[in-house]
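Margin note from the TA: students keep mixing up input and output lines. Inputs are the sequences; the output is the structure of the whole complex. Example:
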Amino acid sequence: MVATDIQNAKLVYERPESLADVATHYCPGCTHGTAHRLVAEVLDEMGIREHSIGVASVGCSVFSYNYFDMDFVQAAHGRAPAMATGVKRVFPDRTVFTYQGDGDLASIGMAEIMHAAARGENITVIFINNAIYGMTGGQMAPTTLPGMKTTSSPRGRDVETQGYPIRMSEILATLDGVSYVVRRSLHNPAEIRKSKKAIRYAFETQQRGLGFSMVELLSSCPTNWGMTPLDSLTFIEDKMVPAFPLGDYKVIDAVKSMKWKEG
Amino acid sequence: MQTEIIIAGFGGQGVLFAGQVLAYAAMDNDLHVTWIPSYGPEMRGGTANCTVIIGDEPIGAPIVKHPKAVIALNLPSLDKYEPLVAENGILLVNSSLIERKVERPDVHVVYVSANEIAERLGDKRLTNMVMVGAWLGASGVLDMKAVQTSLKAHLPAKHHKLLPANYLALEEGAQIARETLAQAA
Amino acid sequence: MAKELLKGNVAMAEAAVRAGCEAYFGYPITPQTELLEHMAARMPELGRAFVQAESEVAAINMVYGAACTGKRVMTTSSSPGVSLMMEGISYIAGTEVPMVLIDVMRGGPGLGNIAPAQGDYTQMVHGGGHGDYKTIVLAPASVQEAIDLTALAFDLADKYRAIVVVLADGSLGQMMEPAELPEMQPLKKQLPDWAITGEPGRDRRLLTSIYLQPEDEETTNIRLQRRWMEIEANEVRYQEYFLDDAEIVLVGFGTAGRVALSAIRHARAEGIKVGLFRPVSLSPFPAEALRLVARKAKAMLVVEMNAGQMLNDVRLVTQGACPVDFYGRMGGVVPLPDEILSEIMRLARFTPHDLNGHTRAAWLDRLEVVRGAK
């Protein structure tokens, strides 16, 4: 009997409370949704959804405030870490996080991310690196790989004239103000699980007042890469991971020794 | 009534503080006053000046081209401001550091060997107060006692041991100015 | 409270502290640096937020974030720094959150210099950032007025969810005058119902300047325009000096207004009937009051430390009721009372009948003569 089956069924998967019950505007196969869900699950598990204030950036994640069910402000392009600084300094006991893409964080917002990190601002940054400007339609990003074709590098990124990709996690790891910076990827379930754990570490870092934390997530952009969703995941694994190695770039001892009950 | 004084010299000669002493005294005597420094790159070049305007109605322009008095603590200051002092104005010259004489015939000139006096009083940092005293003696705009009272009121307590020497510096400067102008008259 | 001898920059900073400013973000720039330094000392000792930002761009966006919490927030800068802030100012206007900005103007354009100027009139009064928004702009002419207007700025910002600019200049920032500071105000206890606070137990709140549907953005614009009309109706401020019998009326704001006042006193001593109209709120502009003054005047002389940025507004609102002439100094030069006195004398001798179209050219010719005479 169907009804009986449902009564005895065990709920193993549901929408996190931190995610609003709406469909997203993200393209099919885009990993933004995965990243959103991981952040939402972590905030739920930590029980801090209602104490959190998100800072949306400019890019494909410009509407992330529609998907996270908590107080949100919308920053100007690249300025999310500065805006988050303003919020956090007024409300130090709230959980404040930015959700930024590569154009936002590593190009126009380079100064703001570097200095927020250098100050050791007690905020969490979720950095989506998909090596392209998604929202404006696939232009070259500061993380675009050498030779990679985009609408503004139609013959492939020529390092002679267009320079080299920037590795943000490595750069930020050199700063004394940073407590936790790691790079993870969203291209397979194992890496997604590792990503979630890293996000938990980042928010726990903030909760304990330990300072600046960032999780860089290698993500896909099937639409602008001109690939199927599956090929996009392969592209991450084959092309992006070698250029942007996964790993822990800086984890201070106080973060390493953090303990919490798994929710 | 409105009177203006420009105090000019090297950085480190206490130019800005001298002007503030006058501004405090004016304020404490219910007069209107504006103190404004020269600011910016020229400060790094080693010269400094400030303008103090004292009046019995709200001060308009914060700077003047032809001040009624100038205290020149060094030669560049005299060179700059001698042509600008108002006719019949007062030019107070620190003769310890300025060897030349004032050329204009239409201003009242007081030469004060302020560095020597300050050193004799035990502290070369009193140079500015000797010159301020000279202006008080020459202009009569502010009362000596009032200035001394203001100095005491606004100088941080930790510097109060310096007050007697400051008072003497003011009085010596004033005395020289009075004598000089009496002789000239 | 008793009067103290206060430097303009310090006085404005302390006035902001006492008005209940809870967060300050700034970047060093002369001639406003003492303001930032005072906040650096005061805010942390009071347990309030102070951050020296990496740039004016970051500073204004920190203000943006803090303003979204509904608390009283401020940044300060000088002309080139304010130009950098224009992006954030437009966002803050579009998000309708309150903030106070003190602009201690200096000579420009470009890097210019650090001398006093009024070249930001257009940038602050007529926008500078993109889109249709208005800021309230208050122009003090003394240290006391700078204190009073800074305190008022926070009240107006809260009342109208507005950006309020205190438009000072380098001389006002650097000068010391006797002035009285207000009592320390208690901090805001009740935050507005739009504030982003991360408070549990209520519906989520969102503050943004993005309205993707043009109709929604237009709705926001209509709200901004309606609110501005309310501000225009209620928040006009100006000062009049010797206007009762004035035949020649000088119009000047801030330091230029003070210099004009000195010249007017000299002219009055010579028997010339001249007065001063000093706009205190440059935005909203005291249009109606100035129109009435213009109807009784034989001539007006606008005096500015720029190339006639307010002149355009004076002409617009007086609508030819009387001839409007201009005298200004630019690039950080402060006009001297003597220069303005000779302008008054000129107008007293020859009342210009039609200056239309030639005002600036004639002024530039006279200015070159004044400069040559030096």
